[in-house]
Amino acid sequence: MIGIVVVSHSRALAEAAVGLAAEMVAEDKRPVVAVAAGLDATTFGTDAMAVSEAITTADSADGVLVLLDLGSAVLSAEMALEFVDPEVAARVRLTSAPLVEGLVAAVVTASTGASLDAVAAEAERGLIGKQDHLGGTTVADTAPVAEADRTADVVVGNEHGLHARPAARLVGLVNGFDATVTLTDLDTGRGPVDAGSLSMVATLNAQQGHRLRVGASGPQAAEALAAIEKLAAENFGDEPVEKAAPAPGGSGLDVAIGPAVLAGDAVDLSEYVASDNELGRLDDALRAAGDELRVLRDGSAEHGGIFEAHLAMVGDRKLLEEVRAAISAGTPAPAAWREAYDALATTFEALDDAYQRERAQDVRAVRDRVLRQLTGTSATETPVDGILVVPELDAATAATLDATRVAGIAVRAAGTTGHGVIVARSRGIPLITGIGDVEVPAGTTVAFDARTGSFEIAPDEQVVRATIAERVGERRRALEEAEQPATTRDGRTVDVLVNVGVVQDAVDARGADGSGLVRTEVLFGDRRTAPSVDEQVEAFRAIARALGNKPITIRTWDVGGDKPLAFLPQDKEANPFLGERGLRVFRRRPELLRDQLEAIRRTAAETPVHVMFPMVTTADEVAWALDALGPRHGLEVGIMVEVPAAALRVGTLAKDLDFVSIGTNDLTQYTTAADRTNAAVAPLADGLDPAVLQLIDHVVRNAGVRVAVCGDLASDPQAAVLLAALGVTELSAVGPQVPLVKARLRQADLGQVDTAAVLAARDADQVRGLL
Ligand code: PEP
Ligand code: MG
Questions:
Q1: Which residue numbers are catalytic?
Q2: How far apart (Å, rounded) are the C-alpha atoms in residues 551 and 629?
Q3: Which is higher by pLDDT, 418 or 332?
Q4: Rounded CA separation 433/416 (Å)
Q5: Cα(646)–Cα(649) distance, rounded to whole angstroms?
Q6: Which atom of ligand 1 is nearest to the CA of 521?
């Protein structure tokens, strides 16, 4: 193994650099690194004699590489060669490589037993990763790599991507094989690059979740691939990092007051005045947007993936080239930026795959983030101190708002069952939907009360504050009694559980008797590759643990409709809600379901678990699902009833089941033929429509098994009483509503609820009146 000498004016600097480089490789693999730095521990300078001694210390038959810092370090090193044995001097190489990056690359490469030439070349390329990232030399400037004989795909699981240490482990591993190995980042299209070169691997800038295609050729190609797959599965040697706990949730109230913060409107470019340095402005804006995104990513344990993807979009090289070319041709930076990202959003919207189509929303978010930087307009997103007024609420916004700062969200579109609304509710953010086109001047005080449906501009603040105080008291009392059972005045006990989309929902839940719905497609919604069985078990275990090992009902992947999954591409459909959704998808692609069922069975061996299948229509589907599940071993099995046909023939479907759970969100949209994501028909999609209630009543009377409701109707305390009166024995609600639903049930006398009148009512409004 070659030896290394570091010549520097500062001993502290040299020792710190050596310490940093040493971190990259295991102790028993490190080359000898000798330091000749400073005239003493604190006096700057270099001394030829000290350098010659260091060379002698580091000398090996394979040679010595000398890295240097400024000016006279070079002179001292050259002079030192006069002092050492000429035979030794002949195998010493002074390199112009950068001290820190070169030293790291040299230590990593030397540790693999590479020759002096190879180590020196690698050290000299030490700046490539940084230059490439910051826009100097590009990967394309380096020699092309050969075609691979065989390939394998691996995923970067490391929290901070393939950063220096894991990259060093990979390079060390690769260089131990007689094989040429290349890496291509399939998510950014970067590469292929030489996987035996630390600097080239650095140019990939591969982030967590990115898929890497590993190509290998040569006598040990197969062994190299197998070893790399193993290393990747072990997180490239990094310890799995505990995610930071996400910010606590919102107040859980249904009333709010605060200044209106308008969002979602186009960024106004009309006042923009171009300068003679538009490229510089663009770079500043990109840097600032990148900084913002990194803060958002690092602060969001559950949804960091969304911002990671946005970061990749901000740094898209191809688009940046286009934007820069347009700016150089005279287009102002905002116009050039907007044009390129609008075009990209249009491309996404035209794609066949539903998940990819949804990414158009991300592209627009990235477009606007940079435009706001360019125009100096303040961001209208996190953190928001006030009431966010948005045309529609998407899940990413709902998931990532700072729930401790936003006073509430007012959505212009109606509808309470879209996933953005569900996410915001589950986070306890006060929310009202359907405020319509009312003109809201930015900054004016607004207030809403979702219970009465009122939205006021410039309200009487005293009145609103009094209502808030009353609701806070109500909530506090409900929380105090949250752990008590929900036994009605006439002695019926209803189990009230929590719906879980992210583990935090289970952590935050108070008083839940378990989970009546774990939305697995939301739990793993950020993933670009399917989670392994182990990963699923770990997540299910965490949910069960957070709920004190009370029963959890895990729903198998409910992909389709408005819930695409990146790792399960689906064809474009004219009516996705009526197409391949939920269980339907897996009759063609059973392997993913099998893995999930395996994870569910394994979790069930440790803690009480129920499994349920979504979007079931026929008895054949139930039989197929039970067959896919195999022996139950005490696992309780059910289906969701969310298709009217399933509700009508529930007795047949439930014959071999332990329970059914009514998904009122979908049952309502299918009964009323009103798309749950379409604001224009939202008033039709009312869960209290007597037609929906008649189906629920039919299910309770005919199922012959336990009937639960896990749709969002169960989160409305009034509706919860009605459902219980109809005979539903288990309700699963969004976390913040669980204590309120329980409190309301405790006050209720179910015998007093006139269910006959409700079922015969003319419409949902009349039902509300009766309740
Ligand atoms: C439902 O449809 O009511 C339900 C609970 O499922 P999701 O909202 O996830 O479609
Ligand atoms: Mg559903």
A1: 419, 710
A2: 19
A3: 332
A4: 7
A5: 5
A6: 9
Average pLDDT over residues 600-605: 95
Q: Whole-number mean pLDDT of the chain?
A: 88
- Select from 419, 581, 695, 710 the residue to mutate for testing ligand 1; criterion: most ligand atoms less than 8 Å from CB: 710
DSSP string computed for 663-722: -HHHHHHHHHT--TT-GGGGGG--TT-HHHHHHHHHHHHH--SEEEE-SGGGGSHHHHHH
Q: What is the pTM of this model?
A: 0.60
Contacts of 392 (CB under 8 A, 6+ apart): 264, 411, 412, 413, 418, 420, 679
**pLDDT band at residue 581, thresholds of 50, 70 and 90?**
very high
Question: For residue 690, how far is its CA from the centre of ligand 1 (angstroms)?
Answer: 19
- The residue type found at 538 is E
252 three-class SS: coil
Beta-bridge mates of residue 613: 639
3-state DSSP helix/strand/coil % of the chain, to nearest 5: 45, 15, 40
Q: Which domains does the chain show, CATH number per domain?
A: 3-124 (3.40.50.510), 150-237 (3.30.1340.10), 255-459 (1.10.274.10), 481-770 (3.20.20.60)
What confidence tens digit (pLDDT) does each residue in 433-468 have? 989 889 999 889 999 999 888 999 999 999 999 999
Question: Residue range 723-740: average pLDDT?
Answer: 96
